[in-house]
Structure formats: structure tokens, C-alpha cells
Write a structure and sequence with these properties.
The complex is a heterotrimer of chains A (208), B (123) and C (129).
Chain A: H1 5-19, H2 21-35, H3 40-56, H4 70-96, E1 105-110, H5 116-128, E2 132-138, E3 143-148, H6 156-175, H7 178-183, H8 198-204
Antiparallel strand pairs in A: 1-3, 2-3
Chain B: H1 8-37, H2 41-67, H3 70-100
Helix pairs in contact in B: 1-2, 2-3
Chain C: H1 2-25, H2 29-54, H3 60-81, H4 94-104, H5 115-125
């Protein structure tokens, strides 16, 4: 005895609403931040508008088996801010110094894990951080093509690949589940977060 | 206009705000120089992702240090997050469009691993 | 503080002028999109400097709106200037896309008469896998 189609549609929408509660929460938070003060009216209006947005513009569900780890996430955020400052001043001085412009290049990087969420995060972060810019990304294979502003200063194609893979490792350590980490040949995160990658870092050379 | 009481904290915050203003304005100016001086589309896009974003973030940080009211800081945080999320997306779309319509001079890129013949190793 | 604010305003203003120079020079629509992005950012920065100078908060919503508008602008230009990838079957017909790309390139055509022909060739076979 199945319910009539209209009721089934309502139920499906309700399920989608409940299933996408993180999106709802984020939209409500944005709304409250836009108004600038936290009151019941604002929070409720934000939730209501969020529900309208989620229902009116449905997005495909994101398939991600992830979990949040606090310490690696802090490592990721800290390195991100430091790298952003360094990269910004590097590009700024490159733009200001006299002489011919630096040699640009396209480097191809194959990421360890082609899942959508991690690919997107790594791509966004690597556009902001280490002298590179994602020109093309292939979801199926997890290959990114990066444009590098100054290939010599970045240590050649191998240096760029190493930097991006290190960035991906930080992203995975912060957000990926144990299964994904094991599949990507990363050591299990029982140890402190900054100790685990050190083994690979030594033979790859000290970072510039 | 917000009321900010005079005191040591205000003085310290004002000095920090002044430093942030100078650094942010310098980075924005460098982004402008890069946009004019760099010869290729992709190189110019580097300047509008990194220095421009950090410059704007620093200017907004200076503003937050000057006004120090929660509602204003909340909105500024929102602007910063928008910038961090949207700048790479816009740059990626523009770069990809440039590549696909042939507006990028590929002979200037060395190495160019997008060229199918140029890559032999798979990782 | 006055010196700092004036210096910062001059630097940001110079950045806006430089962005305008790039908008004028082009050569393609995408270069203009990049430069307009920078112009919007320096406008936001100028408003932020003014608000920091007078410690006022009522201009901050303008910053929110403008940071979003700048993004939408460059994404729209990138969409219209771009050729759809071949495997995207939901895209528009290739003729439409080619026509749009030509339209977006109309400013490029002033370099030489044979540019038109050149663009045509790229629209037919210039897509990347």
C-alpha cells in the first residue's frame, strides 16, 4: 500500500531537506552573519530561506566518506595562512621587480584520491597557495593541470608536483576517513599530525 | 559611527590596523602592476588570485580592528570567506576558457605538460 | 593615521588605474574580465579604507554585495567566452557557441583583417580534450 504520488513527493522533499541539513545550517549562518546580529527572528528566517534554496535549487548529493580531525585541520589552516602570505608577497615582488617576466609552465599532477570533495578542496587551496593556478581538472582520473608563474623559483615540475601532493596530504589528513587514508598509502593518524609526513619529507629534500 | 573608548587597547589596535592598511594597499598595488606588466593571460591571473585576495583581506582586517563591533566583524568575515572561495573559482573558469578558446600562447610555456606528447611518466 | 590612510588610498587608487589600463588594452574579453575583477577588488578596498578612517560601519553591506557581484561578473564573461567541451551533450549547439565566441572576440578583430579567419579555425577545432 503505497501512499499517493503527491504525498510521496512531499515525503521525498522532506527527506532531502533533512538529508542536507549541513547546507541548511550553513545558509542560515550566512543569513545571520549578513544581518549582523543573532536573534530568533533572524535564525528562523535564515532556516526558512535555506529550506527554500535547498528545495528550489537541488544539487546532486556529494558522496564523501570523510571525518573531521581537529589537529590536522589546524595544521592545514595554519600552513594555508602562512603559504598565502608567502605566495602573495612572492607574486607581488615578481610583479614589481624590473626585468623580463618569469618563465611560466604547465605542470600535470595526478592526485592520490580523485573524490570530488578532496579534489575541489585541493584545487581551490592550490590556486591560492603555492605559486600555481589550476587550469584544468579531470574528475575521473584526478589529474590537475596547473599553471606555474615562475617555474624556476618553484623548483621545476617535480617541485610543483611535490608541493601539491603535500598539500593534498594535509587536506586528506584533515578530512578523509581512515579507509581513504589507507587506500592512499598514508600512514595511519595515530601519531601526532606533524610527525607522520616527516619520513617522506627527508628523502624528498628540505622545502625551499 | 561606532563609539570606541580611548585607551591602550585602542592605540595598539590602531597601530596594527595601520600596518594592515599599508600592507594590504601595497599588495593591491602590486596586483595592479602585475595585471599591467605580465605578458600572458595566465600570468596576470596569478596576480588577481594571490596578492589581491590577501590585500583585500588585510584591508578588511584593518577595518575590523578599527571598528571592533561584532555585527561589523561578522559581515567582514563573510566577505573574506566569499573572497577566498570565489577568487580561485573565477580564476579557474577564466583560465580554462582562455585555454579552450586558444587565447593562451602555448609556445611560451616550458614545460607544457598539457601537450599530450610531452608527458611520458604517468605520475 | 592620516599619512597611512592617504598612502593606502593612493596605492589602491593606482591599482584601480592600472586595472583600467588593462581593461583598455585587452586584448581579449578574458583579460578584461581579470582586470575588472581587480577593479572591483580595489573599489572594495577603497571603501574599506574610508570606513576604517572614519570608523563607520554602515558601508560594510556594500562590501558584501560588491565582493559577490565581482565574482558573478567574471564567471559570466568566462562562460560566454568559453567553448563548451565536446563531451558535454547538454550544452548548446556548436554553432551557437562559435557565434558567441566570435561575438566575444569582436574587439580582437581590429588587429588585422585575417583575424576573423583565424578565429574561425580555432572555433572549429580548437577545443581541448
Amino acid at each position: 500500500m503505497s501512499p499517493p504520488p503527491s504525498r510521496r513527493g512531499v515525503r521525498r522533499r522532506l527527506r532531502r531537506l533533512v538529508g542536507q541539513w549541513p547546507a541548511l545550517l550553513i545558509l542560515a549562518t550566512v543569513w545571520v552573519l549578513l544581518w549582523g546580529d543573532l536573534s530568533w527572528a533572524n535564525a528562523l528566517a535564515g532556516l526558512g530561506l535555506g529550506a527554500v534554496v535547498v528545495l528550489a535549487f537541488p544539487l546532486p548529493p556529494i558522496r564523501a566518506d570523510g571525518r573531521f580531525r581537529l589537529v590536522p585541520a589546524c595544521v592545514l589552516a595554519g600552513r594555508f595562512v602562512a603559504d598565502l602570505v608567502v605566495a602573495s608577497f612572492e607574486v607581488a615582488f615578481t610583479a614589481l621587480r624590473p626585468g623580463p617576466p618569469p618563465q611560466g609552465a604547465i605542470v600535470r599532477v595526478r592526485l592520490r584520491n580523485p573524490d570530488d570533495v578532496f579534489l575541489t578542496l585541493t584545487a581551490v587551496l592550490s590556486t591560492l597557495v603555492p605559486g600555481s593556478l589550476v587550469v584544468e581538472a579531470q574528475r575521473r582520473t584526478g589529474i590537475m593541470f596547473l599553471h606555474v608563474l615562475d617555474i624556476e623559483a618553484s623548483g621545476g615540475a617535480a617541485g610543483v608536483r611535490r608541493d601539491v601532493l603535500r598539500l593534498e596530504e594535509r587536506v586528506l589528513r584533515a578530512f578523509a576517513s581512515d579507509d581513504v587514508l589507507a587506500r592512499c598509502d598514508l600512514p595511519r593518524p595515530g601519531r601526532p599530525a606533524d610527525e607522520a609526513p616527516r619520513g617522506g619529507r627527508d628523502d624528498a629534500g628540505e622545502e625551499s | 559611527m561606532t563609539d570606541v573608548e580611548p585607551g591602550t587597547l585602542t592605540a595598539v589596535a590602531d597601530v596594527a590596523a595601520a600596518l594592515c592598511l599599508l600592507a594590504g594597499a601595497f599588495l593591491t598595488f602590486a596586483a595592479g602592476m602585475g595585471v599591467v606588466r605580465f605578458p600572458s593571460l595566465l600570468a596576470r591571473m596569478h596576480t588577481v588570485t594571490k596578492p589581491q585576495v590577501l590585500g583585500l583581506v588585510l584591508l578588511l582586517l584593518a577595518l575590523a580592528l578599527r571598528v571592533r563591533s561584532w555585527s561589523a566583524v561578522a559581515m567582514l568575515v563573510l566577505v573574506v570567506i566569499f573572497q577566498l572561495v570565489t577568487a580561485p573559482v573565477a580564476a579557474h573558469l577564466v583560465g580554462r576558457a582562455g585555454f579552450r578558446t586558444g587565447k593562451v600562447d602555448e609556445s611560451e610555456l616550458r614545460p607544457n605538460e598539457m601537450d599530450p606528447g610531452a608527458v611520458d611518466d604517468d605520475r | 593615521m592620516v599619512v597611512v590612510v592617504v598612502l593606502a588610498a593612493v596605492l589602491v587608487g593606482a591599482a584601480a588605474v592600472l586595472a583600467l589600463v588593462r581593461v583598455e588594452r585587452g586584448p581579449s574579453m578574458l583579460d578584461r574580465a581579470v582586470a575588472l575583477d581587480l577593479l572591483t577588488a580595489s573599489l572594495v578596498g577603497a571603501i574599506a579604507i574610508e570606513a576604517a578612517w572614519s570608523r563607520r560601519t554602515e558601508t560594510i553591506p556594500i562590501l558584501v554585495a560588491m565582493s559577490l557581484v565581482g565574482f558573478v561578473g567574471s564567471v559570466v564573461i568566462a562562460r560566454f567566452a568559453a567553448r563548451e567541451p565536446e563531451h558535454d551533450h547538454q550544452g548548446r549547439a556548436p554553432e551557437d557557441v562559435a557565434a558567441q565566441a566570435r561575438e566575444a572576440d569582436v574587439h580582437r578583430g581590429e588587429h588585422s583583417a585575417q583575424d576573423d579567419h583565424h578565429d574561425d579555425r580555432q572555433d572549429e577545432g580548437g577545443g581541448r580534450p
